[in-house]
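Record copied across here:
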Amino acid sequence: MPTDGRRMGYLLTIAGHDPVHGAGITADLATWAAMGLEGASVVTALTVQNSSGLDRVEPVAPALVRDALHAVLRDGEPLAIKLGLLGSTAIVDEVRAFVAARRCPVVLDPVLAASNGRAAHEDDHAAFLTALRALMRHADVITPNLPEALALLDDVPVRLEGLSALCRGGVVLKGGHAVGADSPDWVSDGRVTALLSAPRLPRSAHGTGCVFSAALAGMLADGWGLFDAAAEAKLRVLSGIAQARAVGPGRPHVHAAAPADSRHLPTLRWVPPGQSTHSPASASAFAPMAARIGFYPVVPDADWVERLLAWGVRTVQLRIKAGTLDADALQRQIERAAAAGRATPGAQVFINDHWEMALAVDAYGVHLGQEDLETADLPVLQRAGLRLGVSSHTPAEMARAHAVQPSYVAIGPVFPTTLKQMPYRPVGLERLRRWTQRYQPRYPVVAIGGIDLSRARAVADCGVDGVAVVSAVTQAADAQAATQAFLECLSAGDRG
């Protein structure tokens, strides 16, 4: 930690000033404050605008922008930079020189005009675009809407490959200007593409592009990848539009700090190479859980399933690692587990991964990881009435889970775990609480990962519907006593 008084860990917005605080630097700073991040700002232009639209743009002197940027830099390097309205070709050139010397993520929102059509700069349009394209070569992610993408590509058909070639590869092509019932965004890192979508809301709001790009920059600064950053930004914009604040007779302002729940979740679908990026038809919802989830042991064989059901547990998952049993032995284990569930009133027995065998033996449900969502025949499982549980570890995986409308979702690992090597950072209680609220009321939430009896009550207090454990029972010295302790611990909270 520095001892010379310099601050650490700030994000920098370089954009215009909106006097009614709906967009520009104040929207960026409000977004970062809502995310718990510190922000700094350098103003590129003063604007004359209100809720009814933009009337005028007055660029700041380029030398003043240059001096302000270097003054901020003396307090330390930024963790990420967000670029918005830049106002003039000369300012674009100053910003390019500054950004080219930085090593942090750079997100560029290519603001060319306001929503009312008023140009966001006073220079020759072709010269401004040339300077902007030169700046884009130093941007990790660009976030154009459809009209901006057309202008950047000289009105040729918009292709993600063409946009990726303008920058360091990352593109979010925002589809708010598209027509139809959905509002789709196409996200590409130059190699993989995803479609982020949500039902189009009945009203628009001022500042959505600023909040989106600021949230994306904040996530990149925090170490998240592009797809997670885009999913988080989409959710924040959707909740912000739904709870937009009226400030005058014109458009309301997007609420940068709006709380989110399952009404605001976007869907994410991976787009296979060579396929069209049109939005597919909505998936049918899986059957809901028949009962509360509660205590949810994940066990390695049918003996444990039968034992736990006899001890009063009503939600159990059989998880047998691939390759540990031959096909016949695996089938017998799954048949026994499913039969034990059918024979126990109120039981909800899930089979992990082996969905075809679970389907064949009429199991209650299956639990799938994210990678299995791309290969399992989900419509067949849905039509057969099986329940579906889906694992999620990140904002993008939350959006992917929402796209298949499962019976419940699992969030984890809540705490570090040694049983399974995880590529994800532990969620922790604070994020577990926030992510649980995002899934509800649409989906029951199960918490999993590193949970023992001493942690179970605190996990349940985050609002989850179920607490899953892997080793806390199967490796206990007295498994039945441990099971009863968990059941009492979690039911005590329900009575409270």
User: Anything to note?
Assistant: The CA atoms of residues 315 and 484 lie 14 Å apart.
